[in-house]
């Protein structure tokens, strides 16, 4: 029984039948009169039918719209969740890529550093060897130059001394000895 | 001077010397004078300078040779210098000496030494050169201080060098 039927029934029941004093008296404290129940029931049924007839489609439409909205919200949430999961996967992938790239860059940097170090050591060793070689050559050249200069100086001094010594040592006897020696050698030549 | 003119002067001087009968002494004196002329810049410039009057150049010749050489030699040199041919004096004298040697069928042998050779040394050297070269030589001795010591003899294309100068040069080359 609907609230309206109950209210109508209670009203009718409350009104009851007038007693001897002219006052309305109900037959039962809780149950209304039978007619009241019938009327109330029919009224309730009419009300329920009217509600079903006229309010049902709207309610159904509203419920369908609500269901559809909730479904859309669920679908959107699912899509958002999926997108979030995809993004999270991408982020994880990117993170993985970043880690891999970082490791690759680090490895490459270490490789380049090792190569630079090796190359630098080799170049340094070559430069040191070249410097040593040049230094040895310069030392040898300087030694040879000093030796040559010394020999040249000795030769120059010797040459300067030879004329003076030889000329000074040639007296008449020596001149005659040279002339006689020449004549003897020429005479013995053939 | 052209070659013909030099030859002409040489022939003329040779004939004069031969006519004077002193060709041997004259060619010897002329040869030594020619070598002195070549080695002395002052003598060469004095006898070849056109700015110096011929009389003065002849006086220089007279001062140099007067009393030291035969009159024929002095006059022959004076003649060449006076004619303004002083510059060609060595060439003329060399031709004269070559002609004289050729006339005697001798090969000219120039001998340079730091000290003069004695007559005996010249005789022995001429004999030695004749023996060494197989030719009789007309020895012309020149005192040349640049040889320092010893002797160098040139006979035709043959040079026999026994000078101290050459030995010193060899020593210097080795040094």
Verbal overview:
The complex is a heterodimer of chains A (190) and B (175). Chain A has 190 residues and is mostly helical. In chain A, 87% of the residues lie in helices and 2% in strands. The model of chain A has no long low-confidence stretch (mean pLDDT 85). Chain B is of the alpha+beta class and 175 residues long. Chain B contains 8 helices and 4 strands; from the N terminus they run ααααααβαβββα. Chain B has a 4-stranded mixed beta sheet, sandwiched between helices. In chain B, helix 1 (3-20) packs antiparallel against helix 5, helix 2 (23-39) runs antiparallel to helix 6 (89-103) and helix 4 (54-65) packs antiparallel against helix 5 (71-82). The mean pLDDT of chain B is 89. The chains are: A mainly alpha (190), B alpha+beta (175).
Q: Alpha-carbon distance between the termini of chain A?
A: 178 Å
Stretches with pLDDT under 50, minimum 5 residues of chain A? none
Task: Kindly provide the radius of gyration of chain B, computed on alpha-carbon positions and rounded to a whole number of angstroms.
Answer: 17 Å
Low-confidence spans of chain B: pLDDT under 50, at least 5 residues?
A: none
List the helices and strands and how they pair.
The complex is a heterodimer of chains A (190) and B (175).
Chain A: H1 3-15, E1 17-18, E2 24-25, H2 34-169, H3 172-187
Antiparallel strand pairs in A: 1-2
Helix pairs in contact in A: 1-2
Chain B: H1 3-20, H2 23-39, H3 41-48, H4 54-65, H5 71-82, H6 89-103, E1 107-113, H7 119-133, E2 137-143, E3 150-155, E4 158-163, H8 164-174
Helix pairs in contact in B: 1-5, 1-6, 2-6, 4-5
């Amino acid at each position: 029984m609907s609230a309206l039927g109950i209210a109508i029934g209670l009203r009718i029941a409350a009104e009851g039948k007038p007693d001897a004093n002219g006052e309305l008296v109900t037959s039962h404290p809780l149950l209304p009169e039978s007619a009241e129940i019938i009327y109330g029931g029919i009224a309730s049924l009419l009300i329920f039918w009217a509600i079903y007839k006229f309010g049902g489609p709207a309610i159904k439409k509203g419920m369908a719209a609500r269901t559809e909205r909730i479904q859309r919200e669920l679908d959107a949430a699912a899509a958002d969740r999926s997108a979030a999961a995809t993004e999270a996967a991408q982020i994880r992938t990117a993170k993985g890529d970043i880690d891999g790239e970082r490791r690759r860059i680090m490895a490459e940097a270490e490789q380049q550093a090792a190569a630079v170090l090796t190359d630098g050591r080799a170049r340094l060793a070559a430069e040191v060897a070249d410097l040593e070689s040049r230094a040895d050559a310069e030392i040898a050249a300087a030694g040879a130059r000093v030796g040559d200069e010394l020999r040249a100086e000795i030769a120059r001094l010797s040459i300067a001394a030879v004329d003076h010594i030889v000329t000074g040592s040639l007296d008449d006897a020596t001149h005659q000895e040279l002339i006689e020696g020449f004549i003897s050698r020429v005479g013995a030549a053939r | 001077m052209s070659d013909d003119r030099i030859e002409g002067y040489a022939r003329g001087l040779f004939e004069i010397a031969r006519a004077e009968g002193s060709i041997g002494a004259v060619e010897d004196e002329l040869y030594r004078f020619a070598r002195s002329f070549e080695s002395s810049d002052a003598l060469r410039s004095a006898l070849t300078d056109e700015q110096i009057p011929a009389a003065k150049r002849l006086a220089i010749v007279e001062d140099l040779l007067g009393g030291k050489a035969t009159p024929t030699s002095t006059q022959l040199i004076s003649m060449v210098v006076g004619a303004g041919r002083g510059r060609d004096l060595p060439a003329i004298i060399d031709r004269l000496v070559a002609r004289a040697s050729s006339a005697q069928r001798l090969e000219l042998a120039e001998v340079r030494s730091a000290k003069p050779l004695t007559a005996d040394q010249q005789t022995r050297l001429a004999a030695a050169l004749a023996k060494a070269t197989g030719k009789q030589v007309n020895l012309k001795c020149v005192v040349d201080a640049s040889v320092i010591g010893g002797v160098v003899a040139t006979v035709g294309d043959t040079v026999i060098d026994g000078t101290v100068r050459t030995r010193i040069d060899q020593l210097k080359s080795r040094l």
